[in-house]
Write a structure and sequence with these properties.
alpha/beta, seven-stranded mixed β-sheet
């Protein structure tokens, strides 16, 4: 039986490892990264890397919102619309600038979240725009016509002066006005009034980004099964008719029924990073064991596209000593 080709994408690996206590070691990850052969995929961002892994060429901004809709939808995807993400965020102002400091709802309970959602929905409905809140923390809006410019992606806009992050385009004035109206409405929203009085973080804006149409599938199927909680990976899997599994299902799977090519896209939950590193270490240990026995060919990548290939001969590279992961991730692998 042919070996399964498994790709493991760990987008935040470098950041999470850098935040872990220095005395914690991860023997399996260290062995895989130290003894694997160097791989690199040119990608401008982790989401560009995901498109590359699915074999889909990208030009211009990535249609993150459309893929989010495909994944989160309650009903059949609406493919004729141009989609935008409209994610709830927190803005903070000083004397001269406004910065986006957080996104998502953090400690807000479902009733407060619903109140904020309705506040945003009412503003958008006055503009004839319908808010799709199929997922509690990532929202989308559907437009009949595409916009002629791109918004700064959410992860890039974090920490930027909002004046610099907003697009400089004539058509963008319309969206700036909508953004201002949403901010005014959220400022007066009872949830935020209560949270201000208690000194808690407010949800006082949304951020538009990720615009585009649902992309076409790759005519050549590169992946059979995808384990992920990432909306982009899962959206790409759905339009390419891949099997989709939850991320944590990979921990118990032997991958025997998943076809010839598998993607595990591991996303960390910020509040559980240390526990999930332990789970990831256990998963990689099983994958390396399968690779050593010739049952699996493993490629691992971080979000930058830097990676390693670990096959059945990798365990023989004993001269490549196992380095602490912080060093291994920054050390080029010899060919």
């Amino acid at each position: 039986m042919a070996a399964v080709h498994l790709t493991l994408l760990i987008e935040d690996l470098r950041r999470v490892v850098g935040a872990m206590p220095g005395d914690i070691r991860y023997p399996s990850l260290e062995r895989g990264w130290s003894r694997g052969r160097k791989r690199h995929i040119e990608a401008r961002s982790p989401d560009h890397l995901r498109f590359e892994l699915f074999g889909i060429e990208t030009q211009g901004p990535l249609p993150v919102a459309a893929l989010t809709h495909v994944n989160d939808r309650v009903e059949r995807p609406q493919s004729d619309y141009y989609w935008l993400r409209a994610d709830p965020v927190t803005m903070w102002a000083d004397m001269a600038s406004v910065f986006m400091t957080h996104y998502g709802f953090a400690d807000i309970d479902p009733y407060e979240r619903n109140e904020i959602e309705m506040c945003v929905r009412d503003v958008l409905q006055e503009e004839g725009i319908h808010l799709h809140a199929d997922h509690p923390e990532r929202w989308c809006i559907a437009l009949a016509q595409p916009i002629e410019f791109g918004f700064t992606p959410l992860d890039e806009a974090m920490g930027m002066n909002v004046a610099d992050a907003l697009p400089d385009h004539p058509e963008a004035r319309y969206w700036r006005r909508i953004l201002n109206e949403i901010q005014v409405a959220l400022h007066h929203c009872p949830v935020n009034s209560r949270r201000r009085a208690m000194g808690k973080r407010e949800i006082n804006s949304v951020w538009f980004w990720g615009g585009g149409f649902i992309p076409d599938a790759n005519e050549h199927y590169l992946l059979d099964t995808v384990y992920s909680e990432n909306a982009v990976s899962r959206g790409l899997a759905i339009i390419n008719d891949c099997r989709t599994r939850e991320q944590m299902e990979a921990l118990d799977s032997d991958f025997g029924d998943d076809g010839r090519s598998v993607l595990v896209d591991w996303t960390f939950a910020p509040s559980r990073a240390e526990n999930e590193m332990a789970l990831l270490e256990a998963l990689v240990g099983r994958l390396l064991d399968k690779a050593d026995r010739g049952l699996l060919s493993l490629e691992m990548y971080d979000g930058s596209g830097q990676g390693r290939h670990y096959g059945k001969n990798a365990r023989r590279r004993f001269w490549r000593r196992r380095l602490p992961l912080t060093q291994a991730l920054g050390t080029p692998g010899a060919e």
